[in-house]
Each structure stands twice: as C-alpha cells, then as structure tokens.
UniProtKB/TrEMBL annotation:
Transmembrane segments: none
Domain ABC transporter: 2-238
InterPro entries: AAA+_ATPase, ABC_transporter-like_ATP-bd, ABC_transporter-like_CS, P-loop_NTPase
UniProt name for this protein: ATP-binding cassette domain-containing protein
Source domain of life: Bacteria
The organism of origin for this protein: Hallella faecis
GO MF annotation list: ATP binding
Entry keyword set: ATP-binding, Nucleotide-binding, Transport
C-alpha cells in the first residue's frame, strides 16, 4: 500500500498539487484521472522520486520516502517499476536486451539467468518470438508490452504507468489494460496508472482518484463513477461523447421500465 498525506508540490510561487491525501491499495489497479494539466504526472513523479514534494508524506507500506536518506531511497526504488508516456525503449537494443537492461544494471545474476528471467517476462506479456526484433520493427502496442515486461523484470512491489494507452487504438488499449490488470493481480503489485482514457477507467479502475486543478476532487471505484454526484467528475467523464451516449441510453432504458 502506498499512502500519501497532505502532499503539496509548488514550482516557485505556483502550487500544482494542493494537500492531497490518498491511499493506493496493494494488489489493485489504482487509477489517477483528471484533465490535461491537472497534476497527474507531477503527482506520479513525486511518488517515484523524480520530483521532490514541497511538503507532505509518501508512505510505502509505512516507510516515508520523503524523509529517507539517499541509500534507503535507492533500495526502495529497486522495489518500483515504471513505464513512461511513450514506451521509452532503447532503439539500439533488441526486445530481449531492452527487457534485460534493469537486470544488467542492478542484479548479480549470471548472464544466462538474466536471459532466462527476461524471457520469462517477455512470455508473460505474450511477446515470445519477438525477442530479437528492434523497437522500430514492432507495433506501438508491442512496444508498450516490452515496456511493461521491462518494468516487471525486477519483480517490483510497486508499478507506475504514466498514460500506458497513449497513442494506441481502442482495441490495443484494452489488451494493455487487461495485461496490467492481470499482472497486478497475479503478482500482488500496488499498481498506479495515470490516464484520461474512460475505457480504462470503466475497465480496470478498482480504485480511482480524480484530480482537479491539483487537489483530490473525488475518489471511488469504477462501479461508482457513472452515478457519482460530483459535477466536476461528471463533466470530465461525460466530456467523452461515447460515455454521454451510453449514459443517455441507460437513463432512457430506466425511464421506459
Ligand atoms: N517542472 C515544472 N515547472 C513548472 N510547472 C510545471 C512543471 N512540471 C509541471 N508543471 C505544471 O504543472 C501542471 C500539471 O502538469 P502535469 O504534467 O502533472 O499535468 P497532467 O495532469 O499530467 O497533464 P497531461 O494529462 O496532459 O499529461 C501543469 O500546469 C504544468 O505546466
């Protein structure tokens, strides 16, 4: 479990995150949603230590990341996996080498063991057969899967995914969502996903935190989103034409009963 308490982040005199309290649950897909510019990426970057919060606590199973010394932080970072917006693969490395990279950097495994572990993760994301291909030889969806395999190769307890569906068609997005959800449940990972994809929200949003202009406006589950009474959340959800139509059809159906 990751718990944040009164997390605030300012850049100069501009406050981007304002006193956020939230709990991200173990073994669940926790989604951070919100409009462009609401602060999702800043929040995630604070969580993984790419930014320093201005104030507040970030508790990883009770351990406060903010007050840790450098050595403790390095150790905790080894428990984190991350995928970035865009897949951020190394163009000059093939799929196997990309996935093996964290092991090459951080593990004491033999070369053979590293290959075996990397192949295990490649198989987990259904990319067996693609291990000798280079990123520019595979599709965007396959690149995302390579990024996920690389993010789990060190057996993380915590997985962070910033916009994992960006640039993907709806069908491929579903495949990625399902994969992230299965991995989260199979390995009991605390997974945090930044998204503004409503299909992801309704598909895998076991816990949803809605950020509005830097503060937590609403939290709940995918089953609560459609009926939530929060106007800002509704505006966000139903800004998607498809969801407005789905909701209207549901209401019409109710009225005709
Ligand atoms: N290094 C920085 N210095 C100053 N302002 C920043 C910095 N990083 C982010 N911001 C500002 O913080 C706000 C939140 O940005 P953030 O990238 O977290 O939004 P987001 O919700 O992730 O948006 P998107 O969905 O478009 O990725 C924006 O107004 C952005 O300009």
């Amino acid at each position: 479990m990751i718990e944040i308490k009164q997390l605030t982040k300012s850049f100069g005199d501009r406050t981007v995150l304002q006193g956020i309290d939230a709990v991200f649950e173990t073994g669940k897909t926790n989604l951070i949603i919100g409009q462009s510019g609401s602060g999702k990426t800043v929040l995630m970057n604070d969580l993984v230590g790419l930014l320093e919060p201005t104030s507040g606590q970030i508790l990883y199973d009770g351990r406060d990341f903010v007050t840790m010394d450098k050595r403790q932080r390095i150790l905790l970072r080894r428990e984190m996996g991350m995928t970035f917006q865009g897949s951020a693969l190394f163009d000059s490395l093939n799929v196997l080498e990309n996935v093996r990279f964290p092991l090459d950097m951080f593990s004491s495994m033999s070369s053979r063991e590293r290959d075996r572990r990397a192949m295990e993760c490649i198989e987990r994301v259904n990319l067996k057969g693609a291990e000798t291909k280079y990123p520019d030889e595979i599709s965007g969806g396959m690149q995302k899967r390579v990024a996920i395999a690389r993010a789990i190769v060190l057996n993380p307890k915590y997985l962070f995914c910033d916009e994992p569906n960006s640039g993907l068609d709806p069908k491929t997005s579903l495949v990625i969502d399902r994969l992230l959800s299965d991995i989260t449940h199979d390995y009991g990972i605390t997974t945090i996903i930044n998204t503004h994809d409503m299909n992801s929200v309704m598909g895998i949003g076991e816990k949803i935190i809605f950020i509005y202009q830097g503060h937590k406006e609403w939290e709940g589950t995918k089953d609560q989103v459609m009926d939530a009474k929060n106007k800002r959340l509704n505006d966000f959800v139903f800004a998607s034409d498809l969801f407005r139509k789905v909701r209207k059809a549901e209401l019409d159906e109710d009225n005709n009963k």
